[in-house]
Backbone:
């Protein structure tokens, strides 16, 4: 990765780091996602199934980790839920015919791999990867 | 024959599973539960609960596929045995096509779950609740098919009212209801001498509006439903003119606390015709509950509720016209898939959950009950 790209990446994450705690996860999205930042309220709505689209109207495909610290941090910081509550919410949607559960992955590598090839995909990882076939989205509180 | 009936959906599910290798958007989920009831007096929910009964098994498999960004199709097959209710026959719980135009408007068609109050459409999904039995005043497990789902259509959507006014979720529907031939309502009719060979049913329409208030965790809502039921058997008929059900509810979640309450009223007149005899059964059902729970640990939750039912159309001093239930409950999640629950019930009145055939010597007005359940969901 070139020094310029590293600098751009670093600058892109300043709002993210200031908006959330230092322990927060980093949002990773497919390159087809046109938005350059995401409101915390929209992020919550997408991962709880209330919204199926980004602010620009394009289709959102939320993906999660199956468990682990990054999964718990993401749920706590952005959804205000624990893994049991999150699972219960989606089970309710699935078993009443009102939604399809977000695809869940065993590892961050597998999640990024899926995000890279899936249009509209949005997930989270614990640290920035060196891959340049995905984009990273800062979260804003407004 | 029942085994053959089980084989057909099983083979179908396997076939879908094989195809899933090519169609990665297909999702398969399911759950299975086993319950146990032990009551101090009376046999509850058509089970031999006074001797301790394990005759309560529930299971479902759902298959969904997102065909496009906007279109999703799916089906859920459900089987249950609750005492003398249900049986080995597999039922289609829901089967629908769902087209979402945008986040504000979408529609579903097929057999869809009916929204009524807080939990009507999700009452089958044991894995999401702390409780083994939901408040029976509003969600009678032996009689759930009365409102559970309909064949027809539904429109739905979310509307933002601005950052200071919260959001509204709406659902409106119309269709045809078919009662479960192996459910409690038809068992009660059979106990009275009226046996149906085809499922009674009728037209239904209604809606649900729930407001997600700006105060985080607070939801307020109301549901309304109009339904009619007609059935015909060799010995007679059952007629319920269109009646109006309304439900109002609130839910508040904060941290480890959860509170909810609901009030429902359903006045209806059932007219049974058995040969020359016409038997009117007036009902003015008033039901409410209040519940609260607390998560003691990551995997351990405790709670309590009070459920109240009374039939105001008849003498409310008689135990057969009311039911009051104090409940304490605990749930432990062993892992992401397995959980166990235990629950104590202190029942007063016999207005709900009792059948003549399983209580041939009559019923005691009060009874205590222990319930336990284990479940698996994926």
Residues:
């Amino acid at each position: 990765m070139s020094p310029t790209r590293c600098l751009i990446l670093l600058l892109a994450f300043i709002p993210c780091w200031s908006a959330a705690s230092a322990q927060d996860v980093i949002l990773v999205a497919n390159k087809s996602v046109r938005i350059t930042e995401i409101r915390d309220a929209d992020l919550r709505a997408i991962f709880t199934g209330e919204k199926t689209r980004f602010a620009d109207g394009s289709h959102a495909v939320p993906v999660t980790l199956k468990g682990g610290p990054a999964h718990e941090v993401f749920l706590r910081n952005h959804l205000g839920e624990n893994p049991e509550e999150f699972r219960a919410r989606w089970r309710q949607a699935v078993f009443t015919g009102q939604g399809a559960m977000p695809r869940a992955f065993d590892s961050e590598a597998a999640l990024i791999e899926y995000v890279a090839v899936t249009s509209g995909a949005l997930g989270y990882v614990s640290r920035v990867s060196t891959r340049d076939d995905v984009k990273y989205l800062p979260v804003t509180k407004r | 024959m029942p085994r053959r009936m089980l084989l057909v959906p099983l083979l179908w599910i396997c076939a879908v599973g094989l195809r899933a290798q090519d169609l990665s958007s297909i999702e398969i989920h399911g759950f299975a539960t086993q319950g146990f009831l032990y009551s101090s007096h009376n046999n509850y929910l058509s089970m031999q609960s006074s001797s301790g009964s394990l005759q309560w098994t529930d299971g479902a498999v759902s298959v969904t596929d997102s065909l496009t960004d906007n279109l999703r199709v799916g089906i859920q097959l459900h089987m249950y045995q609750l005492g003398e209710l249900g049986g080995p026959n597999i039922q289609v719980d829901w089967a629908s096509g769902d087209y979402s135009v945008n986040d504000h408007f979408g529609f579903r068609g097929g057999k869809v779950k009916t929204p009524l109050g807080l939990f009507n459409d999700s009452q089958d999904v044991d894995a999401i609740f702390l409780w083994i039995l939901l408040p029976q005043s509003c969600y009678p497990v032996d009689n759930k098919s009365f409102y559970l789902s309909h064949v027809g259509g539904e429109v739905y959507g979310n509307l933002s009212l601005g950052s200071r006014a919260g959001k509204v979720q709406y659902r409106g529907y119309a269709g045809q209801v078919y009662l479960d031939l192996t459910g409690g309502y038809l068992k009660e009719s059979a106990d009275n001498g009226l046996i149906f060979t085809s499922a009674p049913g009728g037209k239904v329409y209604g809606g649900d509006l729930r407001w997600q208030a700006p105060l985080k965790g607070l939801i307020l809502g109301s549901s309304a439903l109009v339904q009619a039921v007609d059935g015909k058997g060799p010995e007679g008929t059952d007629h319920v003119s269109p009646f109006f059900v309304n439900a109002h509810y609130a839910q508040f979640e904060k941290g480890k606390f959860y509170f909810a309450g609901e009030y429902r009223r359903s006045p209806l007149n059932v007219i049974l015709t058995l040969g020359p005899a016409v038997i009117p059964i007036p009902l003015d059902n008033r039901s409410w509950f209040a519940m609260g729970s607390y998560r003691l640990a990551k995997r351990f939750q405790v709670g309590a509720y009070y459920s109240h039912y009374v039939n105001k159309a008849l003498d409310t001093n008689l135990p057969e016209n009311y039911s009051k239930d104090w409940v304490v409950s605990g749930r432990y999640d062993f892992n992401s898939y397995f959980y166990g629950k235990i629950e104590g019930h202190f029942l007063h009145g016999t207005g709900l959950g009792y059948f003549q055939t399983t209580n041939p010597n009559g019923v005691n007005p009060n009874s205590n009950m222990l319930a336990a359940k284990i479940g698996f969901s994926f």
About this structure: Chain A is about 40% helix and 20% strand.
